Amino acid sequence: MELLQLRYFRTVARLEHMSKAAQELRIAQPALSKTIARLEKDLGVLLFDREGRQIRLNTFGKAFLSKAEAALALLEEGQREVADLAGMEHGSIHLATPSLDRLSEPLNAFVSLHPKVHFRITQASMGEMAKLIETGKVDICFTPLPMDRPDFSSMSALHEEVYLAVPPGHRLSGLQSVRLDEVAHESFIGYKEDFHFQMMNDDFFRSAGISPNFVCRVDEAASIAKLVSAGLGVALVGKCGGPDSRLHLLSIDYPVCRRHFQIVWHNKRYLSKAAHHFIDFVCRYFSGAIPA
User: Fold this and answer.
1) What is the mean pLDDT of the chain?
2) Domain 3-70 belongs to what topology?
3) Which of 59, 203, 252, 264 could hold 154 in an S-S bridge, CB 3.0 to 4.6 Å?
C-alpha cells in the first residue's frame, strides 16, 4: 500500500466523483481510477459502490477512510515536527477562518518578516472549522465565535466594537449613539443568515427585543458598506475592516455589541513552532505591541 494511494483515496471519498477528484489532484482520470482499483485489490474489497458514472463510498470505504485520514494526519504532523527541527523558518501553518477581513493585515506583516514560513489558508464556516481542527486538517482557526470543545485551546486576539452605520443625511446621522430598539423600524442591510457575523448580530437584535426588516442580505463587509452608503438601509458593522469613510458610525448604548475574535487549536495535536509564533504575533499585533 502506497502513501499516494491513501491521498488519492481520501480525495475521491470526499468528492465521490472520479472526474472532479482527478481535476483537483491534477492527474488524468484513468490514472486515478487505476490507483483506486489497485488499492481495492490490495485490500481485497471494493471501497465504492459504482452505478454507471456514479460512485458512493460503501461500508468498507467508510471504515477504511477513518483509518486513512488518521494515518495521513499523523504523517503530516510528523512532517511539521521534522520541519521544526530544522528551525521555525522552515515551518508550515494551515489556517482556517470564515473571513480574512480582520486577519489580512497581521498576516501580511508576519509573512514579510518570515517569508519562508509556508501558509495554507482555508475559508470555512464555523461548523466546518471545528471538524477541520478535530481531524487535524488545519493547525489553527481564527474565529469571532467561541469553539468550546474539551480538546480545544484558545487565545483572545481582538475585541471589536460593533456600530450602527447610517448613510450621509440620514435622520440619525447627527447623533453619536443610539439604542438598537430605537431603530426597530429601519430598513437593514445584513449578512446571509448562516454567515458568522449575522449569527452574532442576530443575538444583538434578540437582546434588544427587535426583529429588523432586512431589505438585502450579502456575504461581504464591503458590499454592506456600499449599500448603506447608497441609502438602501442601515447596518451593524465593526470599525475594524474599514467600512466606507462616508458612513456615519453610531455607538450602540444598548445592548452591548462587541465581537471577540479568538485563535483556536487542538491541544492534543502537534502545533509547530511557526504556528505558536504566529499566534503570539497576531495577539501582539492587535494589542498594539507590534506597529501596524
Assistant:
1) 88
2) Arc Repressor Mutant, subunit A (1.10.10)
3) 264
H runs (alpha helix) in the chain: 3-15, 18-25, 29-43, 59-85, 104-113, 126-134, 196-208, 221-229, 273-287
Residue 30: CB atoms within 10 A of its CB come to 10
Q: What is the pTM of this model?
A: 0.68
Quote the CA–CA distance of 162 and 178 in Å, as a whole number.
12
- Which set of grid coordinates corresponds to residue 18? 472520479
Backbone torsions φ then ψ of 254, nearest 5 degrees: -155, 135
Topology alike, domains 3-70 and 88-292: no
Q: Is the pLDDT of residue 218 over 90?
A: yes
> Domain map of the chain by residue range?
3-70, 88-292
Place of cell 488518521: 70
Round to whole Å and give the CA distance between 172 and 228: 13
User: For residues 256-289, b (16+ Cβ closer than 10 Å) or e, as one string?
Assistant: ebebebbbbbbeebbbbbbbbbbbebbbebbeee
pLDDT at 271: 86
Helices (H) and strands (E) in the chain, counts: 9, 12
CA distances to 178, 189, 228 from 208, in Å: 12, 17, 21
User: 251 - beta bridge partners?
Assistant: 177
End-to-end CA distance of the chain: 50
Q: What is the pLDDT of residue 88?
A: 57
Position 172 pLDDT exceeds 90: yes
CATH no. for 88-292: 3.40.190.290
